[in-house]
Amino acid sequence: MADERAVESAVAQLRAAGERVTPARRAVLEVLAAAEAHLDAERVAGQLEQVHRATVYRTLQSLAELGVISHTHVPDGGTIYHLRGREHAHAHLQCARCQAVVDIPVQWLDPLRARVERETGFLLAPDHAALLGVCADCRAREASMAQ
């Protein structure tokens, strides 16, 4: 079930920016507000049979550009979307073996972000792309196979 407060907050944000709240935009917001998993554009479109697939893609792009939703690029998985304000700010880890995506508090990366900015002047956006590694389950499987 969609988090109606989050949807209405996003709708208010759109209206405050002078943007239209089309049926497609509302439908996409409702799918993201109800999501319990990471959703890419295909999974959003799959839940919206009444909205043309191309419209879903354009809607996701425009909502991201307007700052109503956030997106994270995950290797070999495209882009995943979240409704801003629904969840705490988080970063993503992706297992290079099984492709699992794990959320972590973005604050865990603050020391790295501060050091990179201090030493290079570069400002990281740690919630914009997943960090690759190998998850605990895959590491355990590999260790047991090596024995």
UniProtKB/TrEMBL annotation:
Listed cofactors: Zn(2+)
- A molecular function (GO) term: zinc ion binding
Cite the binding residues for Zn(2+). Answer: C95, C98, C135, C138
At the top level of its lineage, which domain of life is listed? Answer: Bacteria
Record key words, sorted:
DNA-binding, Metal-binding, Repressor, Transcription, Transcription regulation, Zinc
- Gene Ontology process terms (BP): negative regulation of DNA-templated transcription; regulation of secondary metabolite biosynthetic process
Q: Which InterPro entries match?
A: FUR, Fur_C, WH-like_DNA-bd_sf, WH_DNA-bd_sf
Question: Could you give the cofactor binding note from the entry?
Answer: Binds 1 zinc ion per subunit.
Which is a Pfam family this sequence falls into?
FUR
The keyword Transmembrane appears for this protein: no
Per the record, the similarity remark reads: Belongs to the Fur family.
Q: What is this protein called?
A: Transcriptional repressor
